[in-house]
UniProtKB/TrEMBL annotation:
Annotated GO MF terms: nucleic acid binding; RNA-DNA hybrid ribonuclease activity
InterPro entries tied to this protein: RNaseH-like_sf, RNaseH_domain, RNaseH_sf
Pfam families assigned: RNase_H
Signal sequence annotation: none
Protein name: RNase H type-1 domain-containing protein
PROSITE patterns listed in its UniProt record: RNASE_H_1
Gene3D superfamilies membership: Ribonuclease H-like superfamily/Ribonuclease H
Annotated RNase H type-1 domain residues: 191-341
Length: 622
């Protein structure tokens, strides 16, 4: 058990006041960054102190590589801690890039968890060749009172008999007000009782206007005489930023929001992401850390963290195996699924779980609960793509309405339009296997028009790309037939698909082909962009001049025939009869003004999936 008002002190089971306190305050290791390299202290597998100097941080994994230093503090707990370099031990994990971060070659490096470590004050900020000893002003007798409970607060046991406790610090915040009429109440228990909840979430119709997120919780009272020990249950829905993790977090929020203050709660969930989110709550990542906004659903998790703080809850997450016949887990799953179709299922009010921070970022009435930097980047990209599609060169896109013939992959298109010359390295033999380029010989060897390029650009075809047998595990013939059937390979003035290919609007089939051949999508996009760039450059220079294409469309519109062009101009024909080519209006006005109904970024926030998947809503006819 832990003291609710402290993240680093333990008390005996069901006893609030601590028996021993420490006046030493250490900062959590999770607050360190790559630029601010600190000395860290944590525990090893035997609960012995482990010391080290930070080398490199992996923020997505909440881990850190350290230079291992050792101490005799266990044999002399009352003396100040003296550190010396570790000559090498069994725990050593090689770190080849160590020389990039340290001027002194380390003999022993380890990987530790930032969530389980704390920053250790020392008299040394930088390790030099002459550094043989580092001192800390504290003793292990003083630090152990703080470090040991902080390390153990995240111990999670996967069984039902016992579980770890998620401990949170209590910041000074305004109390969170939740309308209890919107949520069912749990079965009341005597003061100091232990509450047990099974929680689950459900997501359907992702990426469509019919998207729905359901959540549920089931309260258990073991051996209380209820049918299967189920005392109470409820379900509901939540909106915006759809994901399965969000539904799981909503279920936990709903359960904790109706739980009595100053109580112990065990949450049983089949979601590891939900348990990881509660771990971040333990380190106050959603209220104190400047990195909280890098976590998806951070507003919802911040509200969960605040609930635990303000109500003095001790929360214990327990991982259960999903779809394994567990009655209560199946019950919670069924409740969450039924929330999609129930008129009585309450909707979690947005204001309730987005009020934890004094500043709230809102985009077109939707609260931002993803990385704001990413939102700004997407808005920048979408704005420029909107401006790009308004150019006359893209006014033909309304002619690509036939989804069975030419479906534009806008992620690939955007990537290709931002083409980097570095992608051309994919055509070199030294990079071929790294980028799976040999499988892209399907493009280079078999597709129409590209055969002509072989005659003029042999440098694009290295031997590795035509090596036989590289596709022995899978017959690509059916995939090739589908690719051959695309109309874009036939260049003509009446074929808009070929025009789309040349101007960079690439079809979904290009990527689908190689994904089905077990090629990672990022690698496929990189190589396809390089192939397309070379294709266009050579096609424009050596095979076909696209300017004549536009000219022919103008001539068709003006009914200028070959006979007319080869016949001398009649002397009595007034000059105003000719409409200048530059003044010819575009065939259609494709781009519509941005509003809340057709904005692809807002649709992505509400319906899910990347913003480029919602271009159809923005562009109307495409």
């Amino acid at each position: 058990m832990t003291i609710p008002s402290s993240h680093d002190q333990l008390s005996d089971q069901y006893v609030r006041p601590p028996s021993v306190t420490s006046s030493i305050i250490l900062l959590p290791g999770a607050t360190t960054t790559q630029k601010n390299r600190h000395w860290l202290i944590t525990l090893d597998g035997n609960d012995a102190p482990l010391f080290g100097k930070q080398l490199s941080v992996q923020p997505k994994k909440d881990t850190c590589v350290i230079v291992h230093w050792i101490s005799d503090c266990l044999s002399s707990p009352g003396d100040v801690i003296r550190l010396r370099p570790c000559p090498g031990c069994d725990a050593h994990v090689p770190f080849p890039s160590a020389n990039k971060y340290s001027a002194v070659q380390p003999r022993c490096t380890l990987t530790i968890s930032l969530l389980r470590s704390m920053i250790l004050p020392t008299n040394c900020e930088r390790i030099r060749q002459s550094t043989s000893e580092v001192l800390s002003p504290y003793t292990w007798a003083d630090l152990g009172i703080t470090v040991i409970p902080y390390y153990r607060r995240l111990d999670l046991l996967p069984d039902f008999s016992s579980s770890s406790l998620v401990v949170v610090d209590a910041p000074v915040v305004a109390p969170l007000v939740v309308d209890q009429n919107l949520l069912s109440s749990s079965a009341p228990l005597p003061s100091g009782s232990h509450y047990h909840y099974y929680t689950d979430g459900s997501l359907i119709n992702l990426g469509t206007p019919e998207v729905s997120m359901g959540w549920s919780w089931v309260q258990l009272i073991p051996d209380a005489g209820y049918l299967n020990s189920v005392a109470a249950y409820t379900h509901g829905t939540i909106q915006n930023w759809p994901s399965s993790t969000r539904t799981e977090a909503a279920a936990i929020y709903a359960a904790l929001s109706i739980n009595p203050a100053d109580s112990t709660v065990t949450i049983y969930t089949d979601s590891q992401a939900a348990i990881d989110g509660l771990r971040l709550c333990a380190s106050s990542s959603y209220s104190n850390s400047r990195l909280f906004y890098k976590t998806t659903n951070f507003e919802l998790w911040a509200s969960i963290e605040q609930l635990v703080h303000t109500n003095y809850l001790t929360v214990s997450p327990v991982k259960v195996k999903g779809h394994d016949g567990n009655y209560w887990n199946k019950f919670a799953d069924s409740l969450a699924n039924s929330a999609h179709y129930s008129d009585m299922a309450p909707l979690l009010p947005v204001d309730a779980y987005t009020s934890s921070h004094p500043v709230c970022l809102v985009y077109d009435t939707v609260v931002c609960e993803s990385n704001p930097r990413r939102l700004f980047k997407l808005h920048f990209q979408a704005t420029f793509l909107k401006d790009l599609l308004s150019l006359r060169r893209f006014q033909f896109l309304h002619c690509l309405y036939d989804r069975d013939d030419y479906v534009v992959d806008w992620e690939l298109t955007w990537f290709t339009l931002n083409f980097s010359p570095a992608h051309d390295a994919s055509f070199q033999a030294s990079h071929a296997t790294r980028h799976y380029t040999f499988k892209f010989k399907l493009f280079l060897d078999d597709l129409p028009l590209l055969e002509k390029l072989k005659l003029t650009c042999s440098d694009l075809y290295i031997d590795l790309l035509t090596c036989p047998g590289v596709l022995a595990d899978q017959d690509p013939t059916p995939l090739l037939r589908k690719l051959y059937s695309l109309s874009c390979w036939t260049i003509s003035s009446s074929n808009w698909s070929s025009y789309a290919l040349i101007w960079g609007c690439l079809p979904v089939m290009f990527i689908d082909l190689f994904v089905e051949l077990s090629i990672p999508r990022p690698s496929a996009m990189k190589v396809v962009a390089a192939i397309h760039n070379n294709f266009i450059q050579k096609l424009r220079k050596r095979i076909w001049n696209p300017r004549t294409y536009d000219k022919s469309k103008w001539e068709d519109a003006m009914n200028i025939t070959l006979k007319l062009k080869t016949t001398p101009r009649p002397s009595n024909l007034p000059a105003i009869s000719y409409v200048p080519y530059s003044s010819l209006p575009p065939p259609t006005h494709l781009v519509t003004p941005r509003d809340s109904e057709v904005d692809w970024i807002r649709n992505s926030m509400i319906q899910g999936l990347p913003w480029y998947k919602h271009l159809s809503g923005f562009m109307g006819r495409l």
